[in-house]
Amino acid sequence: MLGLGAAGFAAAPYLQRGLESFLGSAAGSDPTGLTGLLPNGGGFRYYSVASSVPHKNEQNYRLKVDGLVDRPATYTLDALRRLPQTRVVRDVQCVTGWRVPSTPFAGVKLSLLLDAAGVRPGAKAIRFTCFDGTYSESLTLPQARRDDVLVCLQMQDKPVTHSHGGPVRLYVAPMYFYKSAKWLSGISVTSDVQPGYWEERGYDVDAWVGRSNGRSDTPTV
Ligand SMILES: Nc1nc2c(c(=O)[nH]1)N[C@H]1C(S)=C(S)[C@@H](COP(=O)(O)O)O[C@H]1N2
Ligand SMILES: [Mo]
């Protein structure tokens, strides 16, 4: 029913031609894991590849930074809040065509956490993991160090809700929204790019909005 796998991929070329009307009728074959519409979601759709996700709060949320670093660290929500916060306002764009214009996201620059951890020479990429137990994402180190890549505590100027991946999600402003891992729990510095959940299923690691079709094996015309 969720249209994952082959059926979802078959729909992708249509989606890339931007057939909004097709999208309207094809929510069930969304290839990136649509599981429902958010009531009063302001244009957002709720995505989770995991069928249930534990709730985390002040007390039990932890973000681990490890891998090829000199100073591995574990942050509580409070520790993240006490770091300098950055706010960016950009359009959100899913590969399947839906878009939410001018959405504020705020949190800690990923580059700040990487500098605090001390990235070792030879490191090339980041692997992100999530407390849904399933999803993962990746960025190259230069991508991860951009000023518009945030470890977000706020979305739409409110704490990130559970549905949107709270209490902490990633926001990769220049890329398709699948890069913005929800329920973020791990940031691991790696020697090579380890493709994330959708990337293992054919989507681009370099998911620049407008300069990528979101899928590496689909011819670009
Ligand atoms: N952990 C996790 N993060 C995820 C996803 C997911 O299924 N699980 N889906 C991605 C996709 S494809 C999109 S479009 C956005 C959707 O974010 P939203 O549910 O806040 O609208 O989350 C991204 N991050
Ligand atoms: Mo998506």
From TrEMBL:
SUPFAM superfamilies recorded: Oxidoreductase molybdopterin-binding domain
Pfam families the UniProt entry points to: Oxidored_molyb
Domain Oxidoreductase molybdopterin-binding per the UniProt entry, residue ranges: 52-198
Signal peptide range in chain numbering: none
Transmembrane regions: none
InterPro entries: OxRdtase_Mopterin-bd_dom, OxRdtase_Mopterin-bd_sf
Protein's recorded name: Oxidoreductase
